[in-house]
Specification:
The protein is mostly beta strands and about 800 residues long. It is about 5% helix and about 55% strand. The protein has a 22-stranded antiparallel barrel. The chain has a 5-stranded mixed β-sheet with strand order 10-16-17-14-15. Strands 39, 40, 43, 44 and 45 form a 5-stranded mixed β-sheet that branches.
Length: about 800
């Protein structure tokens, strides 16, 4: 045979092989119906074959028999049966809809490692990426509200302080991609640091209720908010994959203009994801039906260097409340070999000045008290690098090492009406942390989790008074002792054993050591002590059981938590409330929480799920603000006025108890209903209500969805907190509350009706449209300074490429 004949034969053979491959190798891609993202680990099977989709949502169906129906199954999505004829009609693209019930979800927050939610005794609420996609959360505080189980307080528009089971501020822990965000100056009063996290770059979030100190250490008394940002993902092919999303959103109530872009580059061993968001919020407009005392009839403006009271042309516009914010996220991921995965993350957030609205509406007699009160730019930067190792060894099956550096900058600026000087206080915290976590499968269904953590904070603080007329400066007291130190070191171990298919045991211990040192500046105050030198330890434990007989799940969990006093508790001097000043206290000790949780889940006919939990927390040596003395005096001159002295002290004890209940039901093929209700009560040893116990609140949703359209009609509602049940510290702030028939402050009940819709125009474009507070109610959530938005039309357009 000649060379030409051989080449012809080989060419024909290769052509036939290529034709056969094209004919019989048929790949299918499975995507999420809300955001068109690929779904990994979808089980695809019929009587002849079983396969799973890869990280790109792709699976090969070439070995499947063509005359049988194929089932597509995933724990988070509705099952779908399709024939090859159906697949051909959709060009082998399968769209799955998220299940309402989600009974087999995976969570990370309970142990730092992925595990089935139904094996965890704690109550955990997952805010899924589909829920995030449907709703139009302006900030991460608003995103947390989507859970239906977290109450959000706002002193100003640029804020959002989560309240969880009667705890808030530095008693609840914020975690971002495995790194704790809480630092040594997180205060006991309401704080807004959670808004530094970009809601547009969050894939999902988990909220664990109750003490989480065994895994997370100090501050996790009421719960943990665990945010997971966009992940850099690998491909399974040799081709480089490019993908991205861009979005623009407009909201009418505060003339919001938000732009967002994220894009990723993926290879088999390297990937990158970048996210950019910018938001511009104008002054917020409240509703026009409701309490007249909430309106803003006048405000202070500076005209020709003079403070002038201006009549508000529209008393429903909350002058001044607008602000701007920039967020940047960059992640890089590299897999040098099959055992090691390296991730680097850069996070940056910066706001403009944020007016503190609750102070701007405060009066002194008949005159507005402040001409200016605003937070300076809130700036947060984090760099972290993590190493994930998955090779089986004698000590561990998987390990994870995370190094992180965070830089927090914030400031406060206030000037009273008619005064020449504005007080400016600046804070900077540099936080370094290292986390080392291990998971070891001891034997089948038996797992050990253990690790260590070290965190150190360096706190810098300064203060000046600036004359607004001649711009001269002079020193004033700083908020905290400058050049302070705060460090924690800990080790933990926990154990999980699936004793049977329906019974799981969880238990754990953690030991923490906490150090703090601060030298007090006596230039402005004659403190009775010169420094704070703090050294303490704490041992915490947990024990939980989960029992899952058929369509039931019962869980029982007892746990302890602790919070060591931080620099804010021990060493600050600041104007806490009208007419009172908080002073340092060097005699503080940690507070401890002892909690019991009982949970019940019932699944009925695979269409209805009832999920309920009751809890009781005993808080010992509770750190609360109380009347105090300073060098024997119960009042001192502070900032030009006689002020009552207060301090953070260890009170005797407090109790917090309540229940949470959620209901989910699939009414029809495309129609479902869900509802959440939360009831909490809390009292100190003198039977006085606790400050951060939210009123009873809940949400009810009616959700309609098709492959291209979703509509969510929902109600939000809050119960009243009467004057008798108002915490003493809240009674001292009548300017943010309504007045009852006796003229006493109270927090009225309220409700809103709202609608969100999502329409998938095509594979690239999707449109969201919604209206909040349809009936334009005027209401102020409990303890909030700013009044909630009135009727608010929201539109956003998203393009995926």
């Amino acid at each position: 045979m000649s060379i030409q004949s051989e080449m012809r034969t080989v060419s024909i053979f290769l052509f036939i092989l290529l034709f056969a491959s094209a004919t019989f190798s048929q790949k299918v891609k499975v995507i999420d119906e809300t955001n068109s993202q690929p779904i990994e680990n979808v089980l695809i099977f019929n009587n002849s074959k079983t396969v799973f989709t890869n990280s790109e949502g792709v699976a090969d169906l070439s070995e499947f028999k063509k005359d049988e129906k194929i089932l597509f199954k995933h724990d988070f999505y509705e099952e779908k049966y399709l024939t090859f004829k159906n697949l051909k009609e959709t060009d082998y693209m399968v769209v799955l809809e998220q299940s309402v019930l989600n009974i087999n979800e995976v969570v990370i927050s309970a142990s730092h490692w992925e595990q089935n939610k139904n094996e965890v005794p704690n109550r955990i609420n997952i805010i899924s990426k589909n829920k995030i996609a449907l709703n139009n959360a302006q900030t991460s505080a608003d995103l947390l509200k989507l859970s239906g189980e977290v109450f959000i307080q706002k002193s100003q528009l640029g804020g959002g302080s989560p309240m969880i089971r009667g705890f808030s501020a530095n008693r609840v822990l914020i975690v971002v991609d495995g790194v704790r965000m809480n630092n040594a100056i997180f205060r006991s009063g309401n704080l807004q640091n959670v808004i530094s996290i970009d809601a547009n770059s969050i894939e999902n979030s988990e909220i664990i209720f109750g003490p989480g100190s065994v895994v997370y250490g100090s501050d996790a008394l009421g719960g943990v908010m665990d945010f997971h940002s966009l992940r850099a993902k690998y491909t399974t092919s040799e081709k480089t994959k490019f993908a991205g999303n861009t979005m623009f959103r407009f909201s009418s109530a505060n003339t919001e203009k938000t732009g967002h872009l994220d894009f990723s580059v993926s290879k088999k061993r390297f990937s990158s994801v970048t996210s950019l968001s910018y938001s511009d919020f104008d002054d917020l407009i409240m509703g026009n039906i409701g309490n007249e005392s909430y309106t803003r009839p006048e405000y202070v403006d500076i005209i020709n260097g003079q403070d002038i009271v201006i009549t508000n042309s529209n008393k429903n516009i909350q002058k001044y409340s607008g602000y701007k914010q920039l967020n940047v996220l960059q992640k890089l991921r590299f897999k040098p070999n099959k055992y090691l995965d390296i991730n680097y993350g850069f996070y940056y957030s910066k706001t403009s000045d944020i007016p503190r609205y609750d102070r701007l509406i405060q009066y002194s007699g008949n005159q507005l008290k402040y001409a200016q009160w605003y937070y300076g730019p809130q700036e947060w930067m984090m760099n972290n690098i993590s190493f994930f190792h998955s090779r089986e060894t004698k000590l561990f099956s998987e390990s994870k090492l995370i190094f992180a550096y965070q830089d927090f900058k914030e400031s406060r600026h206030d000037r009273k009406f008619g005064k020449d000087e504005i007080r400016k206080r600046y804070e900077n915290v540099k936080a370094y942390s290292v986390n080392l976590d291990f998971e070891k499968e001891i034997k089948q269904n038996s797992f050990l989790f253990y690790g260590a953590e070290a965190v150190t904070n360096k706190i810098y603080s300064s203060g000046i008074k600036l004359n607004v007329n001649d711009l001269s400066e002079r020193l004033t007291s700083s908020r905290y002792p400058d050049n302070s130190d705060y460090s924690t070191f800990a080790a933990y171990i926990s154990y999980k054993n699936n004793l049977s298919d329906i019974f799981t045991l969880n238990t754990g211990l953690r030991y923490n050591r906490v150090y703090a040192f601060a030298e007090l500046d006596t230039m402005f105050f004659d403190f009775p002590f010169q420094n704070i030198d703090f050294n303490t330890g704490a041992l915490n434990g947990s024990f939980g059981l989960v029992y899952r007989p058929e369509t039931w799940q019962f869980s029982f969990n007892v746990s302890s938590g602790f919070r060591a006093p931080n620099i804010d508790d021990m060493a600050k001097v600041f104007d806490s409330e009208p007419g009172s000043v908080v002073v340092p206290n060097s005699e503080l000790t940690p507070e401890f929480a002892y909690n019991t949780d009982i949970g019940i889940v019932k699944l009925i006919n695979k269409k209805i799920k009832v999920d309920a939990a009751v809890f009781y927390t005993f808080l010992d040596d509770a750190l609360i603000r109380k009347d105090f003395t300073f060098n024997g005096a119960d009042s001192i001159m502070y900032d030009g006025e006689l002020s009552k002295v207060q301090a953070i002290v260890n009170a005797d004890n407090a109790v917090i108890y309540g229940f949470q209940i959620a209901f989910f039901a699939e009414l029809l093929d495309k129609l479902s209903v869900s509802s959440n209700y939360n009831y909490t009560r809390g009292y100190d040893s003198e039977n006085m209500p606790l400050r951060h116990v939210a009123p009873s609140f809940g949400t009810t949703h009616l959700l309609f969805k098709t492959e291209k359209f979703k509509a969510d009609l929902f109600a939000e509602y809050n119960a009243e907190i009467s004057f008798e049940n108002l915490a003493e510290s809240e009674v001292d702030k009548p300017h943010i509350y309504a007045s009852d028939l006796n003229g006493n402050p109270f927090s009225p009940s309220w409700y809103t009706i709202n609608l969100n819709t999502l329409f998938k125009i095509n594979k690239v474009f999707s449109l969201k449209a919604g209206v909040e507070n349809i009936f334009n109610m005027r209401y102020r959530p409990y303890s909030s300074g700013i009044v909630a938005p009135g009727r608010n039309f929201i539109f956003s357009l998203k393009a995926s490429f």
